[in-house]
Structure formats: structure tokens, C-alpha cells
Structure to design on (124 residues):
């Protein structure tokens, strides 16, 4: 069984930066993909960034060039560095992971394990 725990959310002004962390606990050794999703009030959950066991990354168009996903395998921790934040980045951010090789890495249906979420609020 795997548990994911996010941290690092908070409030920041537009143009600022935040770094989110997601610690993995339990049987994480064979997880294939780790990802960040976000969900704003009244909107569907959307994929933000994904990294696989080979280090390959995928980003949503809305965050390309501003966000960077990375993983420290020695600490079993996933990160999301968010720069040049915009008010539209305001959302609850979730860490997710799965053992399967999915064909739609930014689709939340591809992930079976989720963290509890951390709130990010960007003011204008």
C-alpha cells in the first residue's frame, strides 16, 4: 500500500514562486508515473505535470516554461517548482502515482493513488 503526502502550498502574489513536495510512503518502488494535478472550485481536475521512472516529463500547455516537475528517488519525494505564478493557477494541488504505463499521462483516470491535496492561492 502507498501513501502520498503533499506539502508546500500557500498564498503568493502573481509573479511569485512556490515549490510543492509530495512524499511517498510504503511500497513505492515500482510506481511507474508520478504526477501533479490541480482542481479549482467548480472545475474539473486537470493534469499539470507528470514524470515517469525514466525521468521523462509531460506538461500541460498552460504551465510549460513556468513549472518544473522533478523527483528525488533517494528521498522518494516528488516536487513541483512553480514560477511566474498567475491567479489562474489558484487551485488545490494533488500528487498522484500509479504502477501502470498509461497512454494518457495527464488524465486523472490513469492514477490509482492520490494525496490529500495542498492549496495554492495566487493573488493579483
Amino acid at each position: 500500500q502507498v501513501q502520498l503526502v503533499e506539502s508546500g502550498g500557500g498564498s503568493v502574489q502573481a509573479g511569485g514562486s512556490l515549490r510543492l513536495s509530495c512524499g511517498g510512503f510504503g511500497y513505492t518502488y515500482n510506481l511507474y508515473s508520478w504526477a501533479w494535478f490541480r482542481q479549482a472550485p467548480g472545475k474539473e481536475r486537470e493534469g499539470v505535470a507528470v514524470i515517469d521512472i525514466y525521468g521523462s516529463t509531460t506538461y500541460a500547455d498552460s504551465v510549460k516554461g513556468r513549472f518544473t516537475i522533478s523527483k528525488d528517488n533517494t528521498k522518494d519525494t516528488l516536487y513541483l517548482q512553480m514560477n511566474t505564478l498567475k491567479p489562474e493557477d489558484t487551485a488545490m494541488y494533488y500528487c498522484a502515482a500509479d504502477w501502470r504505463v498509461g497512454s494518457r499521462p495527464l488524465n486523472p483516470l490513469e492514477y490509482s493513488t492520490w494525496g490529500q491535496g495542498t492549496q495554492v492561492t495566487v493573488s493579483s
Remarks:
- The chain has no helices and eleven strands.
